[in-house]
Specification:
This protein is mostly helical and 242 residues long. Helix content is 68%, strand content 0%. Helix 1 packs antiparallel against helix 2 and helix 4 packs antiparallel against helix 7. The N terminus is likely disordered.
Length: 242
């Protein structure tokens, strides 16, 4: 097994990724974290379905409200379920959830990496769709104030531009070129640069979420209601299901 790490080892018997210093590849009994994905899905999907159904039902049948915010929210909910289904399909192939240095190139197939590229391509538009529904809801509730409209449109357009650019960058970096297969493409230093893109996207997600949470505070606190009700409204905003 250790000989497979040597540069002279045959190409198919080499690990897909060089192990970190002090780590030895384990081809025979690799550790897998795939069960965590099933646990997370089993817990989160029912929560999403229940709260999303409550919002959709209350807006469409109780308040008789049909707005662009409702439409984008329903679309993002369906998108989330499809996206989670794709993740489960990718995990079910047995390649995901393991360290890449515990997998031999000979064990790799094109389909998991095609799944990975598809998930990367859908991730940023999916995240933006969720934020879009929040921005549109803010416009519906507080759009009468000019400064607030400018803040909403600035956040909406900036986030849309960023997520669109990251989608294009992910495809450009990791899509096969020339005679490359999906396996060969993901093993290139070019595609490894996408890891830095994921880190930057994680930071941007946190910053944009904070922006969404802070944006309605001033207008909510100016409502002519009791302090308890205003705090309750802010709490609902923070759930993302308002």
């Amino acid at each position: 097994m250790s000989s497979s790490l040597e540069p002279s080892a045959p190409w198919p018997s080499r690990p897909f990724r060089t192990p970190p210093p002090g780590v030895t590849a384990n081809f025979d009994h690799p550790d897998s974290n795939s069960h965590r994905a099933y646990i997370a899905a089993g817990v989160c999907i029912p929560v999403i379905v229940v709260f999303a159904s409550l919002r959709i039902y209350s807006n469409l049948y109780v308040y008789r409200s049909r707005t662009w915010s409702d439409f984008t929210f329903m679309l993002s909910t369906v998108w989330a379920l499809i996206y989670q289904g794709l993740i489960m399909g990718a995990v079910g192939q047995g390649f995901f959830g393991k360290h890449l240095w515990d997998l031999k190139l000979d064990d790799a197939r094109n389909s998991p990496f095609l799944f990975a590229l598809l998930l990367e391509s859908l991730y940023s538009p999916f995240i933006w769709m969720i934020k879009l529904s929040m921005f549109l809801m803010y416009l519906q509730l507080f759009g009468s104030r000019r400064y607030f409209r400018h803040l909403v449109w600035a956040g909406l357009l900036l986030s849309g531009l960023y997520y669109f650019s990251t989608t294009v960058a992910s495809v450009v970096l990791c899509a096969p070129r020339g005679k490359e297969t999906y396996i060969m493409s993901y093993a290139t230093p070019r595609c490894q640069k996408s890891i830095n893109l994921l880190i930057v996207t994680g930071v941007f997600n946190i910053m944009s979420d904070l922006y969404l949470l802070l944006l309605p505070i001033r207008e909510t606190m100016r409502l002519h209601n009791s302090l308890r009700k205003r705090i309750g409204v802010l709490a609902v905003f923070m759930t993302g299901f308002a």
